[in-house]
Amino acid sequence: MNDTVTSNDGTPISYLKLGEGPGVIILHGAMESARSHFELAKALSDSFTVYLPDRRGRGRSGTYGPDFSIRKEVEDVDALLSKTNSHFVIGVSSGAIIALNASLDLKAVHKAIIFEPPLMTDNLISADWVDRYDREMSAGNVASALVTGMLGTQMGPPSLQRMPRWFLIMMTKLMMTLEGSSGGTEGPIPMKVLAPTLHYDVQLVIEMEGMPNDLLNAIDINILLLGGSKSPPYLKAAVDRLEKAIPNAKRVEFEGLHHGATGNKNRGGQPERVASEVKSFLGLE
User: Fold this and answer.
1) C-alpha–C-alpha distance, residues 166 and 19, integer Å
2) Which of 44, 142, 154, 254 lies 20 to 30 angstroms, CA to CA, from 273?
3) Class level of CATH domain 2-123+203-281
4) End-to-end alpha carbon distance in the chain
């Protein structure tokens, strides 16, 4: 079922709803949309009512607006929690940055599951690539911009970092051609359509860079930290930092999985495995 909630600044936030039980909101990451975690939602739907929002700038949701910040994303979550009477939040990647801030600021959040937020910890990654990505997007070189983003965020197997750039661009163009240019109602939004949203996800990462441990120490709810054993070192370091800083944090690492662990199976996810840990943490398995 599709529905919409209006955020504090009037922006409509579209979401999918499935299942029955206590409400859980899943916040997707960069280069994703509501449908990217549909299989995880389905695996949870026997115990929960699951809400899958399209974050700002995606699908039927409204645009970012001129003063976009993490505060806007947290206000979107607040509106969803209020309308659905939900108290559990799952945040994936950049969505996990939003979930962390919601856990700190919103009393309606009673428990949160945080999967590999891309925090710039221990100088293991930087955002130096963003200017190049923005130039390539402005010039209409979408495939090249996506390769810049993929390399900059260290996504995919390490072997990709060693491949010639021209080859990666060629393969990305082929993948975009196979996907098509517009998303249907039953599948994720194509890469070409999502490409401009990456700029704003990186904006959240940069905004979070200076978040002091004192704020993380102030998160007073139970947190489940999730990660994959094959994820990039900077993501593991981010989870390490959260585990040390958040008082009521439990950590689970999925052996053999990577940053796509929570996603649909066609993107390398194992949603049933993740759902089992979520249910256990929320007391329903």
Assistant:
1) 45
2) 154
3) alpha beta
4) 26
